[in-house]
Amino acid sequence: xxxxxxxxxxxxxxxxWRERVRxxxxxxxxxxxxxxxxxxxxHGTDAFFDSVGLDAAYRKANDCSTFAVETHVNYLAEVRNGxxxxxxxxxxxxxEKRIHFFHRMYHAERGFLAATNEAMxxxxxxxxxxxAPMKAELQAALNALRASHRALPRPEQQGRVIxxxxx
Length: 167
Fold this sequence. Notes:
The chain has helices at 34-51, 56-62, 136-149; strands spanning 17-20, 64-75, 84-94, 98-107, 113-125, 130-131. By secondary structure, it is of the alpha+beta class. Strands 1, 2, 3, 4, 5 and 6 form a six-stranded antiparallel sheet that branches.
């Protein structure tokens, strides 16, 4: 990624995922359809989980996985066919069974924040398909990451509620 004046301010977070918008993902408004923002964020989730050790080897060895239980997406600016986007992830919190995290999607060349995604995932024992505690080594990796992310500002879009404000 170039570090020119248009490069996004990633808040010191690594770019965990890069992807180019495909034409078939664009809708009649000639921009990325809302469903595909979620797809790109899901690819970012996979990369984030891989980075903390919740990867294919962990899932296979422990017969565990994760399920998304809640997500909130804020669409802030258009991205269009051929645009490359960058995703970052901030760990907001976790406990033995849940991971609360926040993705930001930036336009790779122009640097603007295009969308955000707040998500809660649960750790699942796939043998019984029930929520179960994560292994100690995974919790240790998440704890170290949480400690390094504590100094980051809370995302502006975190905890949003949909509604029409009335005066």
